[in-house]
Structures are given as structure tokens and as C-alpha cells.
């Protein structure tokens, strides 16, 4: 065995400091807590960042698809044949025609800007993100002049299922008296709540034919929404689509459409990992200081052990085990704390909010109505390995100093 019973006994005994050596023990406890808090904080923050990115990606792709195909100029005409070509490309799961347009939505007493998305009733029912999050009404009534609103948009307009909403387009209709604003009144058949503030507060769905009529696209659409199943394969499928459709089409993938948003999330994630790693690094320095003080305090004991036959390697292993034990216990404690906190983060948030009476996670600021958290086992393993490695490296210098201690010099003034 690398560590004998004698070495383990001495190492663990040194960690239980006597009354006159209490300061060394206090530093060791703070080092252990520093490692634990560093590991727990890293796991919690990285899990929240992963959850935020995953929820953001799921919401964006669930509503907008992995790829969107536009005509080079104007509406996409003859979209049925184009959709057939798109579906024949390997990797494509579906191609849904859509009509998008910006409007002012008003209920008579309140108004709000909104994004109208025209989609056939069958395609909307197949869109799982919306279909599974209907909180009022039913998609069975979606059609003709029936529209589906985000619940926050409905709140801002002061309407519910059965209410009426008038849409006003910025694209006016020319008349002999000048350009008149284009408007049409629809009735609300359902409300959805996808959990992302941006969509719940500004999105509404209209039947495809009604949207084509309102935005005057004729028999064309503004684009085709393409799903490929795996977002990471979108670029490869995009290249195949470009080859199959030719040069008269413009293809935009989800990364291009949301580049700045996901880039900001990725940069913030990396910076947070670097900053929080410093907590573990500071705790490792505390281990170094506590071990150096222990070596100074145990100089007489080291000299006696050496005169009794203990080798320098044994002394080295004793102090390495003492220091590494602090890191191991702290890492395990931090791992358990981090996972438990992450798994119950919503309950903890609700408890703190009820305690202080303040909203800690405003949907208007953070996009989501709940804190998303997703534990990545690979990241957890990386954090644990890093903490253990830093703890082990922190013990090397003090242990080497203890092993190099000359027994004669240590006992000279005793």
C-alpha cells in the first residue's frame, strides 16, 4: 500500500489539533469550507447557465425552427413545390409555410406591439411547444378569424378567450383619400404560456389564409420553417438545401438568427466559470498556509519521528494526506451541496421570495418565468477533478518542506 496504517494514523491525528494548536485547526476548517463553497457554487452556476441556454434554445427552436427559407425577393411563391423539395433533402423532418408580420394589437382600451405568425391549423397543432402549453381555450377552434395569443400579451390587452382583438398593420392600403391603415378584428380562441417572456408577451398566431389576406402576400408566404431534429446538424442540412434549391433562396439557421444572444450567453458562461474557479484557488492557498503552519508547529514531532526511523518519504506522505484530506472532504461536501441546491433551486427561490417579499427572478429581465437548471455530469466531474487536483498541488510544497526538515536543527532549541 502507498499509505501505511501508521502514516494514516499520524496524518489524521495532526488534523485534530489540541487546544494550544486551535488556530491551525481553524484555518484548516476555513480551507475546507472554501473548497466546499467553491465546488458547490461552480456546480450551481454552471447548471443554471446550462439550463438557461437549453431552455432558450428549446423556446427559440420550438417556435422558429432550426432553419428558415426565404425567397430572394418578396414573398415565397409556389411554396408547396419548394416544401416538397425541402422535405426530400436528407435530415429534414418538416417544412412549414409561415407568414410573419409586425402589427399593433388593440382591444379598444389597451394596445401593444405584436408579431403575427400565420400558420395552418394542422401545423400549429403539430407544434408541440405551443400545443402542449395552451392554458385557456382550445386549438380546435383555431381557424377563420380565430387567433391564439401569448397569455402575457392577452393580459396587457385585457382580453381572454372569446375576446376581440383588432390588428393594425403599418402597411397601409392606398385609397383616393390617401394611405389608410389596414386593420382587421379577430376573436381569441386560446392562450398559450411557453414560459419565455419575449414570446408570451408579443406572439400571436393567426390562420395562414387570414395572414396571407391581411399582409397581402397573395398565395405566397414569407418563409418556410424547417425542422431537422438535431440543431447541431443545421449547418450540414443548410448546405444540402442550398444545393437542392439553387441560388434564388436565402437560408438562415438558428445560430445566424440569434448569434448575438447565444454568443453573449456563451461568453458569460465562460467568464463565470473562470471567476468562480478563483474561489477554489483561494481555498487551495488557505490549505498551503494551514499546512505550512502545521509543519512549523510539528517540527519537534517530525524530528522525533525521523530519529525513530521514519523516512523522508513517510513524512512527505503524512503531510500530503493531511492536506489532501481537507480538499477531499471539502470537495465531497461541495458536490453534495451543489447537486441538492440545483435540484431544489425553484423551491429555494420561492422560500426566499416569500421570506423577503421581493421577486428575485423577474421574467421581464431574465426572459423565463422560472429558474432553469440542468446538471451536466461531464462538467460536474471536471469541477470535482479540478478541486481535487488543486487541493493535491497545494500540499506538495509544505509536505516537501516537512520531509526536508533536519532533525538536529529541529531539536537544537527544544
Give structural attributes:
17 helices, 57% helix, 10 strands
Question: In words, what does this structure look like?
Answer:
This protein is of the alpha+beta class and 414 residues long. It is 57% helix and 19% strand. The protein is built from 17 helices and 10 strands. The protein has helices at residues 5-15, 22-64, 79-87, 121-126, 128-131, 151-157, 197-200, 208-214, 234-245, 254-257, 259-297, 299-307, 312-343, 345-356, 363-366, 377-403, 407-411, and strands at residues 67-71, 94-106, 111-119, 134-137, 146-150, 164-175, 178-192, 203-207, 223-227, 249-253. Strands 2-3-8-5-7-6 form a 6-stranded mixed beta barrel. A hairpin with a 2-residue loop joins strand 6 (164-175) and strand 7 (178-192). Helix 2 (22-64) packs antiparallel against helix 11 (259-297), helix 2 packs antiparallel against helix 16 and helix 13 (312-343) packs antiparallel against helix 16 (377-403). The model has no long low-confidence stretch (mean pLDDT 83).
State the gist of this model.
This protein is an alpha+beta fold.
Strand content: 15-25%
Structural class label: alpha+beta
SSE pattern: HHEHEEHHEEHEEHEHEHEHHHHHHHH
Measured distance between first and last alpha carbons: 34 Å
Low-confidence spans: none
The main β sheet shows up as: 6 strands, mixed, barrel
- C-alpha Rg, in Å? 32 Å
Sequence of strands across the biggest β-sheet: 2-3-8-5-7-6
